[in-house]
């Protein structure tokens, strides 16, 4: 739902459908969302097209009645247009109207503040954690960096491009980047907070830039550290990093030459290759063609049907703080009502910003 936040906040009313449980194979994961606006506009998706029409009608009903609905969709082959999942799985979809509490949560995630949102329907409570987006730090203001920044933003990263040369490091050259920094890469990285969700891609092709920043990056517990270059450049770079005292176990984390073997050569094709490796590392993929594998396409979701967070995506990341009386998102005995919005930035930890789904 957080991906839809800017559009939802621009509508005066809406109904939003969220996937709250997945069993077996399904096109979209837990947390996928689709929304219907005041004039019937549609954004997002809950199934990649299998049950969208049915969910659309349900959302229109919820938009009119303001009553939340919880529906289950499973496999159906009765007719070509039956509301079912052709992949054989099933999913639960929660549909709810907009509320002041939900709008506050959406605004908080647009502002980059971590929070947990709770919804209640059919006697069940669902939670979704929205954390700040993972960071992608791109070092080297070359043409490849523009393409990597663009695809990184498309994948949901907060992208920063950094280079010590002010002539090249300009916002005009990197419109997809959230920020463009003029500084020595190693100095900027040394002063920048990072976490296990941070990815670093070094594209400088110059030892005086890439060796210091890679030495700094490999000293941190980052999600991904990659560097562009030929195999000869890679071997020379390893020797320079060893000379800088970088231990072998840290060097083993360096993905260089960065990217998967796709055979491309252009900056855009190289960016796709880099992005493919980022996604594979992030989700534990093999990087092999699906046609060469016999394993399930979609890995099992770590959900029992009552939890919205995509935990694989946020593994190792700091969680949003729950409100007082709650531990790990479970209501405490002194807090019988379930708050919709928890831990949103400056909201006091004992505050309840909207309760249940009745805050219209």
From TrEMBL:
Q: What name goes with this protein? A: Xanthine dehydrogenase accessory factor
Q: Which domain of life is it from?
A: Bacteria
Identify the stretch(es) annotated as Disordered.
291-316
The record's listing under Pfam families reads: XdhC_C, XdhC_CoxI
- XdhC- CoxI domain: which residues? 13-74
Q: Which residues form the XdhC Rossmann domain?
A: 136-278
Which PANTHER family does this chain map to?
ALDEHYDE OXIDOREDUCTASE MOLYBDENUM COFACTOR ASSEMBLY PROTEIN, MOLYBDENUM COFACTOR INSERTION CHAPERONE PAOD
Per the UniProt record, the source organism is Lentzea fradiae
């Amino acid at each position: 739902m957080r991906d839809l936040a800017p559009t939802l906040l621009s509508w005066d009313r809406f109904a939003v459908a969220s996937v709250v449980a997945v069993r077996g194979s399904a096109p979209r994961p837990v947390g996928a969302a689709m929304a219907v606006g005041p004039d019937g506009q549609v954004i997002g998706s809950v199934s990649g097209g299998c049950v969208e029409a049915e969910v659309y009608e349900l959302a229109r009903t919820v938009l009119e009645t303001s009553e939340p609905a919880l529906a289950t969709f499973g496999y159906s082959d009765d007719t070509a247009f039956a509301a079912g999942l052709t992949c054989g799985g099933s999913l639960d979809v929660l549909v709810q109207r907009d509320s002041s509490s939900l709008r506050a949560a959406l605004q908080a995630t647009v502002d980059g503040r971590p929070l947990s949102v709770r919804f209640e329907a059919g006697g069940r409570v669902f939670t979704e954690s929205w954390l700040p987006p993972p960071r992608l730090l791109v070092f080297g203001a070359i043409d490849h960096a523009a393409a990597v920044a663009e695809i990184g933003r498309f994948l949901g990263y907060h992208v920063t491009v950094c280079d010590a040369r002010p002539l090249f490091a300009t916002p005009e050259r990197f419109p997809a980047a959230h920020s463009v920094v003029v500084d020595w890469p190693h100095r900027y990285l040394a002063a920048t907070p990072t976490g296990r969700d941070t990815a670093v891609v070094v594209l400088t092709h110059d030892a005086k830039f890439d060796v210091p920043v890679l030495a700094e990056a490999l000293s941190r517990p980052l999600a991904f550290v990659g560097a562009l270059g030929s195999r000869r450049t890679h071997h020379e770079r390893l020797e320079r990093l060893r000379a800088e005292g970088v231990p072998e176990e840290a060097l083993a984390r360096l993905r260089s030459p960065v990217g998967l073997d796709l055979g491309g050569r252009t900056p855009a094709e190289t960016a796709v290759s880099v992005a493919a490796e980022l996604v594979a590392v992030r989700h534990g993929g093999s990087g092999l063609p699906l046609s060469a594998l016999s394993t399930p396409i979609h890995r099992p979701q770590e959900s029992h049907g009552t939890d919205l967070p995509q935990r694989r995506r946020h593994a190792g990341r700091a969680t949003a703080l729950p409100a007082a009386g709650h531990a790990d998102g479970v209501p405490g005995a002194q807090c019988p009502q379930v708050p919709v919005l928890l831990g949103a930035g400056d909201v006091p930890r004992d505050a309840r910003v909207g309760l249940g789904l009745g805050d219209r």
